[in-house]
Amino acid sequence: MFNKWLKPYLPRSLFGRAFMILAVPIVLIQVVVGVVFVERLFQDVSRQMTQSTSLDLNHLIALLKDGQDTTQAARDLQITLRPVPDADLDAPDRLKDSLDFSGRYVIETLRAEVPEARVIDLASPKSAVTLIAQVNGTPYEFTLPRQRVSAANPHQLLVAMVAAAIFLTALAAAFLRNQISPVRRLARAADAFGKGQSLPLYPRGASEVRAATNAFLSMRSRIERQIEQRTLMLSGVSHDLRTPLTRLKLSLSLLDSDDEETTLMARDLDEMEDILNEFLAFAKGDSEEQDEMVSPLALAEQVVANAERGGRVIPLNLEGAEAAGEPVKMRRPAVQRAIANLLSNAAKYGDRSELTLYTGAGFVEFVVEDNGPGIHPDQRETAVKPFARLDTARNQDKGSGVGLGLAIAADIARSHGGSLNLGDSERLGGLKAAFRLPR
User: Which DSSP string corresponds to 116-163?
Assistant: First the structure.
């Protein structure tokens, strides 16, 4: 229950939470020690010093009551004494300011220890204590230094405590940042590896962080080896299968027969070759390609031009054209392959398709729309999985495949830190595939 209440107020970063765990106790200790110690300084020390000074004041008052000369005694006690017949004995006591904590204890003690006291004034600009007492019917003014009744400059203790707290907190923050930096480097390396990049990383920091870094490096090496082995295996399978496919194509081309059966066999061979290419593209991914700065507009125009050379007319629309030409960091062949897959997918299930380029401050988005049957919202998550075939949602008579087109596009988007979102096309009425990349 307590954690649920406290959670919204906690920092989100590890550094912020660790710093709070370290700083809060320091601040609390400073506050508790400061309050307890300063209270003792203001109260106990001020009362003791005021009680000692009250003895001197009572001695002078006793001399005045006996009619003796107080000049020498006042000089020895460092107290100024003079009669003030016109003094206002009903005036209120005065403090130096609202933060004069010790002044309250001084007034209370003087009232208790000096019965003849009528007015106590601590607001003198010269840091003096002025006490008006009535002796034998005559008002007398007693003036003495403030330092005789309370500690001098008590704020210096608070200043020293605050300065020490700031210094220790800054030192702790620097040390903590140094300890957190290996965790941040590990997080950056993990995020980059998820996008197909391999950042240099060395074990540093505390033993637990070193262990986590070593575990990540071992995992990254195993995954890289598995990807390499899978790519080599599928490349070998593709190469071995291409040889008999090529022989079959050559044999069909040498046949004089142009009947329907020969045409269907040739189409099946072409389909088998396309399936092999899809398998190889999915297995290879884009991990071997290099990042480069690419103009989204130029890339979209290139994809449309390639489609036109294949006999398809793809209109290109622009949204946010002023930023369409600004380069974006991406792996150009992979992104181009992903958009081509989306356009090919749209051509299979519709007779009209469009490509729209949206550009914003933090993203660039390639949107492919068609007028086909679309995909039901409940099946869109399944559609982007490898080898998914949605026979009930898409017209399989218009094309064939193994369900890798959307999966390849989604994998490429994720490797760039982006996403592939499927929806309904408001413009054409079919499927809308939004391929988004961050800037």
Answer: TEEEEE---TTSEEEEEEEETTEEEEEEEEGGGTS-S-THHHHHHHHH
Give the number of other CB atoms < 10 A from CB of residue 260: 8
Whole-number Å distance between alpha carbons of 168 and 164: 6
Q: 144 near 129, Cβ under 8 Å?
A: yes
pLDDT in tens, 361-370: 788 889 998 8
Number of H helices, E strands in the chain: 12, 11
Sequence-distant (6+) residues with CB within 8 A of 176 are 15, 18, 19, 22
pTM as predicted: 0.50
Token couple for 13:
């970063």
Between the CA of residue 176 and those of 11, 28, 106, 152, 158, what are the distances in Å?
15, 19, 46, 39, 26
Residue 267 burial (C-beta neighbours within 10 Å; 0-12, 13-18, 19+)? exposed
108 contacts: CB under 8 Å, gap ≥ 6: none
pLDDT at 213 over 50: yes
Residue 256 DSSP symbol? -
Distance CA 47, CA 102 (A): 9
